[in-house]
Design brief:
By secondary structure, the chain is mostly helical. About 75% of the residues lie in helices and about 0% in strands.
């Protein structure tokens, strides 16, 4: 086992810092010198927690950027959907309103079931768009046929 050579160092520190060092030293059961030595090593080696924190902040910043991009895509998709829906769905006459509301409630339940399934499989809309893995035309036709037959 090698013997470390220690040299004396006398530094003036603020009174409140000295009190905090004494309290920390007593709580940890370590000498004040060993605590100061470890703190100086960390500071001088530039391997401090600040470096790790900055690295993690960079990772979080990139994640927030991806989230912002995803929200922008979903915002544009929702806006497009609402515009198309309003353009192609005229108001219903009074006699058809109740049947339409019942069908809308049923279709909404189907939509919620689909979303729950997607969430359980960790399939995000953005990932599907990126992979171009959305419903194909034949899939959409099959769903419309099933709905027309009352199966969907």
């Amino acid at each position: 086992m090698s013997q470390k050579a220690y040299v004396g160092l006398y530094a003036n520190i603020q009174r409140d810092t000295k009190k905090r060092l004494e309290a920390y030293s007593a709580a940890k059961g370590q000498s004040q010198g060993s605590i100061v030595d470890a703190a100086l090593r960390e500071y001088l080696d530039d391997s401090s927690q600040a470096t790790l924190i900055l690295r993690e902040l960079g990772r979080l910043r990139r994640g927030v950027g991806r989230m912002e991009r995803n929200l922008d895509v979903m915002d544009a998709g929702l806006a497009g959907f609402v515009q198309m829906w309003l353009a192609y769905n005229p108001p219903l006459p009074g006699g058809q309103k109740e049947a339409a509301q019942a069908m809308a409630a049923e279709r909404f339940d189907q939509f919620i079931t689909f979303i729950q399934h997607q969430i359980r499989q960790h399939k995000t809309f953005i990932a599907q768009v990126a992979e171009d893995d959305l419903l194909k035309n034949e899939d959409i036709r099959a769903l419309l046929d099933m709905e027309g037959e009352g199966k969907a």
